[in-house]
Amino acid sequence: MNKNNPIGIFDSGIGGLTVAKAILSVLPKENLIYFGDTKHLPYGEKSARSIECFSTKIAFFLKQKKCKMIVIACNTASSLAHESIKKLFPTIEIINVIDPVVNLIYKNKPSCVGIIGTKGTINSKIYPKKIHEIAPKIKVKSLATPLLASIIEEGFFNDKISRVVLNKYLNKSELKNIDQLILACTHYPLIQKLIGKFYNNKIDIIDSSSQVASHIKNVLEKKDLLSNKITGHRFFVSDYTKSFEESAKFFFGEDIYLEEVSSIH
Ligand code: DGL
């Protein structure tokens, strides 16, 4: 495998850009191929079978683009499709966004951790399962917050609409008495400020992107696959929309040129 080959990253939409940004901040010489499956967004509402089917097709696309690693920058797909992708592509390094966070929770040892994510992620129970495998004493409280990803995808990051919906969710009894909160959806760091404000910045908010980025750095270092040549990034979507392009530019902070690939699904 050539070390200057790109890292492939995918999500249903712009959420995975939080991970892409974090990767570039620790590995500025890496070249990324990003895929936003805008045609099938939101993933959180779809069946496990559909998520597996969308995700494996995207992984195949990224493999064809000669990616040296595939990052599943989506909690829903990490919960429901990571194992199948790993089996189908045994020669490529496959990274999910859940394990690095679970390892951090193990180190932090909170007494009660809250988790918010899509219905797909929360109903899979993957976080409590993985946390209890290594730290059975930590209490885990979970809540599906299905409207958030769509609101964020539509560009409502830090305004009244996102605040009202968010507060309604965070006030629920399911999340009472937590001392840390895992943002188990890669879209949520985009409203992290609002989440911090809700808790008066008194609890730790765990966003997977920096954990995932440092895990990726370790893996690439160990395998001697760190890139030393910048050739540029490419951004693909399964359905081009102006709103995605605007949100992506606004958030990624670079002039993003979107390429549409409708043929893979
Ligand atoms: N960003 C994704 C996640 O981490 C998916 C959100 C969605 O499309 O529902 O779960």
Any overview of this molecule?
The structure is a single chain. By secondary structure, this protein is an alpha/beta fold. The protein is built from 11 helices and 10 strands. It has helices spanning 16-26, 48-64, 75-88, 99-108, 119-124, 126-134, 147-153, 160-170, 192-198, 208-222, 242-252; strands spanning 7-11, 32-36, 69-72, 93-96, 112-117, 139-144, 180-184, 204-207, 234-237, 258-260. A 6-stranded parallel beta sheet has the order 4-3-1-2-9-10, sandwiched between helices. The protein has a 4-stranded parallel beta sheet with strand order 6-5-7-8, sandwiched between helices. Strand 3 (69-72), helix 3 (75-88) and strand 4 (93-96) form a beta-alpha-beta unit. The longest helix has 17 residues, at 48-64. It is globular. The two termini are 27 Å apart. The mean pLDDT is 94. Residues 11-13, 15, 41-44, 74-76, 118, 121, 149, 185-187 line the site of D-glutamic acid (DGL).
Instruction: Choose one word for the global shape.
Output: globular
Count of alpha and pi helical runs = 11
- The helix content, as a percent range, equals 40-55%
Estimated radius of gyration = 17 Å
Q: How do the strands of the widest beta sheet line up side by side?
A: 4-3-1-2-9-10
User: How do the helices and strands follow one another from N- to C-terminus?
Assistant: EHEHEHEHEHHEHHEHEHEHE
Strand content: 15-25%
Largest sheet: 6 strands, parallel
**Number of separate strands:** 10
Low-pLDDT sequence parts: none
Structural class: alpha/beta
Give the cofactors and ligands.
D-glutamic acid
Cα end-to-end separation: 27 Å
Mean pLDDT reading: 94
